[in-house]
Write a structure and sequence with these properties.
Largest interface: A-B, 27 and 25 residues
Order of helices and strands of chain B: EEEEEEEEEEE
Oligomer: heterodimer
Number of helices of chain A: 0
Number of helices of chain B: 0
Largest sheet of chain A: 6 strands, mixed
Strand content of chain A: over 45%
Structural class of chain A: mainly beta
Shape of chain A: globular
Low-confidence stretches of chain A: 1-6
Structural class of chain B: mainly beta
Number of strands of chain A: 10
Distance between the termini of chain A: 37 Å
Shape of chain B: globular
Low-confidence stretches of chain B: none
Radius of gyration of chain B: 14 Å
Helix content of chain A: under 10%
Strand content of chain B: over 45%
Number of strands of chain B: 11
Chain lengths: 112, 118
């Protein structure tokens, strides 16, 4: 369903740590998932995607894990850097429908 | 990569006036464009989906007579906020889908427009 958050959960990490951001999605029929990064005052930026027929996908410093059994998605960021500080959103889409449904979002704060 | 622009980036208007926001796909043809609204510390909420040459499809609770959407070409969609009120103050973001792309689900997002109604 649609996500309406009153506040953003925050994850604070030290530079160099690995970060794990979690997302619970809503629709068991969703078959495509995307992670976006949004910096303050900017539009969302594509990070990585995964289809429902996969349970893991790796990119540069990022890994997305998908657990369809519990409708859970996670984004792992290796060696987190201050430039990774932003709000991260997961989004889901159902084949045959066009629209993305965004999760609540998590604010990642990376301190040097 | 695919680039989507929005204009203006920021706009301040008086209550009761109308404001037009443009969304352009710069290097691809966008068969479908989406308009989102984002309030502070909240997620993106889809307002409407527009397909080139046809009427927009609005999400439940979004007033189509207040938020006018025009998608007259494959590279341009406009959102007009009519008779704006302070509660319409928000961050408006568009996205565009490249119907010819390999991954036809991917949406490319614009940088957003900050609307402040005084």
């Amino acid at each position: 369903g649609e996500s309406v958050g009153l506040h953003l959960p925050t994850l604070s990490v030290q530079e160099g740590d690995n970060s794990i951001i979690n997302c619970a999605y809503s629709n068991s029929a969703s078959d495509y998932f995307i992670w976006y990064k949004q910096e303050s005052g900017k539009g969302p930026q594509f990070i990585i995607d995964i289809r429902s027929n996969m349970d893991k996908r790796q990119g540069q410093r990022v890994t997305v894990l998908l657990n369809k059994t519990v409708k859970h998605l996670s984004l792992q960021i290796a060696a987190t850097q201050p430039g990774d500080s932003a709000v991260y959103f997961c989004a889901e889409i159902v084949t045959g429908f066009q629209k993305l449904v965004f999760g609540t979002g998590t604010r990642l704060l990376v301190s040097p | 990569g695919a680039v989507v622009s929005q204009h203006p980036s920021r706009v301040i208007c008086k209550s009761g006036t109308s404001v037009k926001i443009e969304c352009r796909s710069l290097d691809f043809q966008a068969t479908t464009m989406f308009w989102y609204r984002q309030f502070p510390k909240q997620s993106l909420m889809l307002m409407a989906t527009s397909n080139e040459g046809s009427k927009a499809t609005y999400e439940q609770g979004v007033e189509k007579d207040k938020f006018l959407i025009n998608h007259a070409s494959l590279t341009l969609s406009t959102l007009t906020v009519t008779s704006a009120h302070p509660e319409d103050s928000s961050f408006y973001i568009c996205s565009a889908r490249d119907g010819q792309g390999i991954n036809s689900y991917e949406q490319y997002f614009g940088p957003g427009t900050r609307l402040t109604v005084t």
